[in-house]
Amino acid sequence: MDLPWQVLAADIALALALLVSVITDLRSRLILNAVTLPALAVVLVCFFWVGGPEQLLNCLIGLAICAAPLLLLHLWKREAMGAGDIKLMAIAGAAAGWPAAVAVLLYVSLAGGLQAVLWIIAAKLRGQDRPKYVPYGLSIAAGTAAAFFWGDHFF
């Protein structure tokens, strides 16, 4: 399947943002604006270039599907979800578009639940208390990758 170079550029921007964000989230509990904002701009511009306003709207719907639940959680309980996580999910949703963003949200949610359980088990096995922080960037990357590779085959 031959994709336009703009779609490939958007996918590369997403992949790089996910990779860098996983590293910074694991190391310093930060997902950087210097990574997320340019990546989001690249994704939106590339898809607008390919499909015009209609494709841009598709990206924005995907962005809203993925980012809105995290934003609501952040507004309800600020320490539960960081703003960087929200922006990273926005990029994933924009790159996926409608309706694939629904699969991204579901896979990321599953990855997040699995990651949290594994971190709790690992802490208990080490004789430590339950972790106070789970770097959700890792789950966002894993769930987004799963959604892009498997799509809606399991949903």
Describe this entry's structure for a reader.
By secondary structure, the chain is an all-alpha fold. It has helices at residues 5-28, 33-76, 83-96, 100-125, 136-150. The relative contact order is 0.15. The mean pLDDT is 94.
Query: What structural class is derived from the secondary structure elements?
Result: mainly alpha
What's the overall average pLDDT, rounded?
A: 94
How many domains? 1
Our Rg estimate from Cα atoms comes to: 16 Å
One letter per element, helices H and strands E, the order comes to HHHHH
Total helices: the number is 5
* Principal-axis shape: elongated
Report the count of strand segments.
0
- Biggest sheet layout: none
Question: How far do the termini sit from each other?
Answer: 24 Å
Beta-strand percentage? under 5%
- Assign a percent range to the helix content: over 70%
Low-confidence residue ranges: none
